[in-house]
Amino acid sequence: MVDGFGSDHLPYGSVRRRTGAPPRLCVRLQDEAIELGALGDLGVDPGLLDTPNLDRLLAAAPAEWAALRAALASRLAADVPPEARMPLGEAVCELPFTVADYVDFYSSLEHATNLGRLFRPGAEPLLPNWRHVPIGYHGRASTVVVSGTPIRRPVGQLPRDGGPAFAPTERLDIELELGFVTGGPPQPLGEPLPIDAAGERIFGFVLVNDWSARDVQRWEYVPLGPFLGKSFATSISAWVTPRAALDPYRVPSPVQSPTPLPYLRSGDPWGLDVDLAVELNGEVISRGNAAGLYWSVVQQLTHAASNGAVVRPGDLYASGTISGAAPGSEGSLIELTSNGARPLTVGDAPRTFLLDGDRVVLRGRAGGLTLGEVAGEVLPAAAAASRR
Ligand code: CA
Fold this sequence. Notes:
15% of the residues lie in helices and 29% in strands. The protein is an alpha+beta fold. The protein is globular. Calcium ion is lined by residues 104, 175, 177, 210, 320-321.
């Protein structure tokens, strides 16, 4: 038995046998992947299930998602045919869906405040727009990778006295985030998504590690925001936790002051009581909770579509780094180490930013559910990089 992957969870993934067969859409039950296309009639279009990943199901109507989840609950309570079962020890997880657009928000008040202090010392840490608008930027969908994918240290322009150098980043960092993937029929271009309809467009949730090169970021981010300091890799869980599974763990978000504009007001609780942890080389270096996020997931999605931009099936929206107010709840190394000035102790050694060979694992837990972990190991920069 594996804790957190019972019949109340049933996250979706794209899994293949190590023998080389192509991946299949599965749900996870304990330590097995259950191939949906091999379960027989589940009362929904079999074409949504007999497929490599979530793409077709994401494009279906939310009513189909609910019907499938209800059918799975009863189907998996009975005997599951052996041909539908893949022990995870003999399987490889692929990216669970094709990432359409990728948006990264900045929804944690504590993270935005901490980074403001580090990047703009002496100035007001929170910029005047922050409490009015869910700040975000469009990231790079093509470099979103599944948990377990090794991350090569990126090369970029690093600020130096006398001018920038082009070299491997010396400040490779993580960002602990909670992301969601959207689905359902897209609304027409030019039609905003009302906040009361936004929740239904959220198919499910993943943990996200938005790997960041802080030296590259600091040099390039003015005035247009993050670019190459972020776009080299973003890791997500192999398992997508359905929104319906997290419904019992929805809680009120923090009180917002000032009250946001009417289009961002929701009467429903959309905070998510998800305990979070960051492990570096097997040691927990941070513990937090997603419930403290200032901007909720429906506010994020509504804002992203408020100008009439289309929300597509497979869009990934990440919360931004989740940091808490208490020391030790920060979701990035730049915060945990005060930009390298106060090293952590990991494995009896002082540590600031990531070294080659480091292994990072993000974990999440909501009541009895374990969110799919996000693991990644840092590889040295490409050999050619050191010759430039
Ligand atoms: Ca981020």
